[in-house]
Each structure stands twice: as structure tokens, then as C-alpha cells.
Amino acid sequence: MKVNEPVSEIMTTNLVLLNTDDSLDKAERLFKKHHIRHIPVVKGHRVVGMLSLTDLLRISFADLTEDEEEVETIVYNMFTIEQVMAKTPLVVTPNQSIKEVAEILATKEFHALPVVAERKKIVGIVTTTDLLKYLLEQYKCCS
Fold first, then answer.
1. Which helix or strand (DSSP H or E) is residue 66 part of?
2. Where do the H-state alpha helices sit in 12-51?
3. Which residues contact 60 (CB under 8 A, 6 or more apart)?
4. Domain ranges across the chain
5. Over the stretch 73-112, which tens digit does the pLDDT of each residue have?
6. CA angle, 94 then 98 then 102, to 5°
7. Which pLDDT belongs to residue 15?
8. Which residues pair with 6 in a beta bridge?
9. What span is annotated as the signal peptide, if there is one (predicted)?
């Protein structure tokens, strides 16, 4: 296993982002289209929040009715992304070690962290799935 490998080696750089003025309907479409569970929320290139699929499910009453789409639209129109997102998320830098990032994810209640470079510009996202894939790759080379 490689020691002190930077998180930039495993982070996702093909980013799906939301702006604070985007709608929750748009967020839901992005979650479904890209099969993801976390989307960083930005103002310009600066991360100001993190929206998870779980955040959307918490405000959705879709399971209580047969007309899911209508209820979701009504509920989504009642809230803004800024009201639902986790504000000022913990961020990591591309040169932080995978081990350090894994420790953060293991001790906090996060499943994804934005990766930011100079001037807080988002350059990636690292998720628990990225870490699991990395771990599996390590076992593959050593079997």
C-alpha cells in the first residue's frame, strides 16, 4: 500500500455542481442523471455548501402519496438550495493524504468532501466510494 498518497489521486474531477440560485428540481434531476449522492454548492468557484440526496429525501413527502411528482414539485418550491444544503462544509486540499481524508470521513458524519485549491476554488470531490475503490485496488495488486 502506498503511504501518504495525495487525495488528488482518487478524487473525482468531473464535477457536477449546483449554484445557490438553482432549484431543488434541478438538483434532483442531476442526482438521477449522474447516479450520485452528493453535489457541492458553489457561488462562482467557491464552495458554500454541500447538498446530498438524503437532504432532498428529508423534505420530500413523495412516499406518502401516489402523485409523487406533484408533491415533490410543491415541496421543492417551498425551499431553496441554501435552506436545505449543509452550509460551509469541511473541505480538503488536493495534497492532503488519502489516509488523512479517510480519517476525516470515518470520524465525522460525512460521506463526501469537496477538494479545494488556491483561493478556495473547487477542483474535485472525494467520497467514501472513492476510498472504497482505492482500497479494493490496493488489495488487487497485493493478491
1. none
2. 24-34
3. 71, 72, 75, 76
4. 7-142
5. 677 888 899 999 999 889 999 999 999 999 999 999 889 9
6. 120
7. 95
8. 97
9. none
The residue whose grid cell reads 503511504 is 3
Angle at 21 between CA 32 and CA 125, to 5 degrees: 50
**For residues 91 and 26, what is the distance between their CA atoms, to the nearest angstrom?**
24
The amino acid at 106: A
Q: What is the pLDDT of residue 61?
A: 57
Would strands 38-43 and 18-19 be described as parallel, antiparallel, or unpaired? parallel
SS3 content of the chain, % helix, strand, coil (to 5): 45, 25, 30
Q: In b/e form, how buried is each residue of 21-49, taking b as 16+ CB within 10 angstroms? A: ebebeebbebbeeeebbbbbbbeeeebbb
User: What are the grid coordinates assigned to 21, written together?
Assistant: 440560485
Which helix (H) or strand (E) segment holds residue 107: the answer is helix 98-107
Give the integer Cα–Cα distance in Å for 37 and 111: 9
Report, as ranges of residue numbers, the positions in the chain whose pLDDT lies below 50: 62-67, 71
- The closest alpha carbon to 85, from 124, 129, 27, belongs to 27
Architecture of domain 7-142: Roll (3.10)
Q: Are 104 and 67 contacting, i.e. CB atoms less than 8 angstroms apart?
A: no
